[in-house]
Write a structure and sequence with these properties.
It comes from Conyzicola nivalis. By secondary structure, the protein is an alpha+beta fold. The chain has one domain: HIT family, subunit A (2-Layer Sandwich), CATH 3.30.428. The chain contains 5 helices and 7 strands. The strands form 2 sheets. The chain has a 5-stranded antiparallel beta sheet.
């Protein structure tokens, strides 16, 4: 398959030759996501990824910063490159269960994340939020986490509901290293 500039891509499949009725969509295959799909979105409590992450090295867990009550890590399934999550260490599911100290540190780490992402990636804006509960869209509903999603002018890559495709130009490990190195001490 060729892009508009003539670049060849092996992981994009043309609709030509599909057995079904042809449509206008191109398919970008992302087989790495099958592990997430097959395992289900809600991990067992004893295998909560946000409880396990702090027990690993920062590189293994994609952690960019650790505080006293909360930590910051890259989202494994980002909406945009640099998509960070701010999580309390304590396993609580909703914001109203967090202590005042946890809430304050989540807010402070979110502000630092915005500053670091602006400095490292030139972000022009941010989507920040928490999905509380599975019905509200929380992928990991059992452990509180706040999303910090950098945005750029004309990125047109946030929640690609219509196209069903996300293009992420940077590897998670590379982004983690850059953000961690720029995080204020």
């Amino acid at each position: 398959m060729k892009d508009y500039d003539g670049t060849e891509y092996d992981n994009v499949e043309s609709v030509d030759g599909f057995a079904a009725v042809p449509d206008a969509f191109q398919r970008l295959w992302t087989p790495h996501r099958i592990a997430y799909i097959e395992s289900g979105q809600q991990p067992a409590k004893d295998s909560c990824p946000f409880c396990v992450a702090p027990t690993l090295s920062d590189e293994q867990a994609l952690i960019v910063a650790r505080g006293e009550h909360a930590f910051v890590l890259l989202n494994l399934f980002p909406y945009n490159s640099g998509h960070l999550l701010v999580c309390p260490y304590r396993h609580v599911s909703t914001y109203d269960e967090a202590t005042d100290a946890e809430v304050a540190e989540i807010a402070s780490l979110t502000q630092k994340a915005m500053r670091v992402l602006t400095a490292t990636s030139g972000a022009n804006g941010f989507n920040i939020g928490m999905n509380q509960g599975q019905l509200a869209g929380a992928g990991i509903a059992d452990h509180l986490h706040q999303h910090v999603v950098p945005r750029w002018a004309h990125d047109s890559n946030f929640f690609p509901i219509i196209a069903g495709t996300k293009a992420l130009p940077r590897l998670l490990g590379d982004v983690r290293a850059e953000v961690a190195a720029a995080w204020p001490a």
